[in-house]
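Researcher: Go.
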Amino acid sequence: MTAPTTGTLGAPTTTAVRGGRRHRSRLRDLLGVVPFFVYVVIFLFVPTIVVVVGAFAGDDGRPTLDNISALADDYIVEAFVRSITLSAATAVLGAVLGAVIAYAVVTAGPDSLVRRLVTSACGVLAQFGGVTLAFAFIATIGFSGFVTVFLKDSLGIDIFSGGVWLFELPGLVLVYTYFQVPLMVIVFLPALDGIRPQWREATESLGGSTWYYWRRVAAPLLAPAFLGSTLLLFANAFSAYATAAALVSQGAPIVPLQIRSALTSEVLLGRENLGKAMALGMVLVVALVMWLYGLLQRRTARWLD
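Model: Structure:
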């Protein structure tokens, strides 16, 4: 027979004491993440619910599909096409340039000064957006920017001879690429770190060339991480608002600016729920992109772990 775990009637057992300690420890661990859950509920779940409910509600509060059907209007479809084009273009440019920089950083060594400087700079520049970034470009290559004035006065080059491109879609491509490149460096570095030098040495020992190594070994391993990072850049550009709002003062060429127009217009009133319907469309696009990103990340982890 098993010996009793208590020597005194009514005294708590050792097992019960240990169980109570583990329970209190788990409660303390959960208390540490309560602020995070509160933040997610207030700034993610509640706005999402407001958007979904508003997208299917009319001005009188009754359920309707008018807002959803209005998404097929030509100007809204064109805004979505321009937003997707802008996001795809800057994602590809940022991914290619960022991958090249990330590879150069990896070759410098894990503890090198170059890597520390580049990663620190990328961490700052990836968050350098909004009104500040728009002002920086206007002050640099705007109508009276110092680079614009220097090129025109010293070299006779007028960068705006073909039109005011900085404040249109081409200008947004340039500005968005500025913060896409450092973000790509940050998210792609771990994948490059996962490529082991022994794989290249094994390829060379078997007579494989550098081109063969990149084509048959490194490229297939890095492809899911590269594509996943590109999708992340797409979502980052697709949801950006402040930079475009500060740079584009006339018109609403992309969806975030169309939403602003629907919510704040003093000419066409009662379009708030149409803005919520457009926001719901953006949520669905970003959700699809992030789902694909998650699939690629799991495949990357399976190869490189």
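Model: The radius of gyration is 27 Å.
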